[in-house]
Amino acid sequence: MLPLTFSQYFQEVIWMKKPEKLWQAVVQCDQTYDGSFYYAVKTTGIFCCPSCKSKTPKKENVTFFFRIKDAIRSNYRPCKRCRPDLHQRTYHPHEEVIREVKGLLESEYDQAWTLQKLSESVGISPGYLQRLLQNAQ
C-alpha cells in the first residue's frame, strides 16, 4: 500500500474511532459524507458512496474504505447506480474537525469545555483549533 498523505492519515484516524458513525451515514444515505469514505458489500462485490439509494446491506457484510483505489485493490467494483468512481469530492480535513467539535458541544453541552479539552478530544493543537473555528464561517 502506498504511504498516506497527512490529510488521508488524519481522515482515517478520525473515522476509524467511529465506525458506528460511518454506518449511520450509510443507513441514512447521507450525501454530506460522499467522497469522505466508501462502503463495500462483501456479498455483492460492489462499493458505493454513502448516499447510494440501493438497498441497505446487512451491517456484517459491509467494509469501509477511505480511498477508491483501496476498494478496487480489494476486488470490489464501483456501483453502477451511484458511480463512486466518477465523482470524487475534495476532502478538507478541517471540515471534519469542525463537525467533530460541533458534535461534542451538542452532545455534551453540560460539560465545561475549554479550548484545550476540545483540541485534545479531536487530536489537534489548541492554536490550530482556534484558527479553524475563527475561519469556520
TrEMBL record:
It holds the Pfam family Ada_Zn_binding. GO terms for molecular function: DNA-binding transcription factor activity; methyltransferase activity; sequence-specific DNA binding; zinc ion binding. The keyword Glycosyltransferase does not apply. PROSITE patterns: HTH_ARAC_FAMILY_2 (PS01124). Keywords: Activator. One of its GO terms (biological process) is DNA repair. Residues 99-137 form the HTH araC/xylS-type domain. This is Metal binding Ada-like protein.
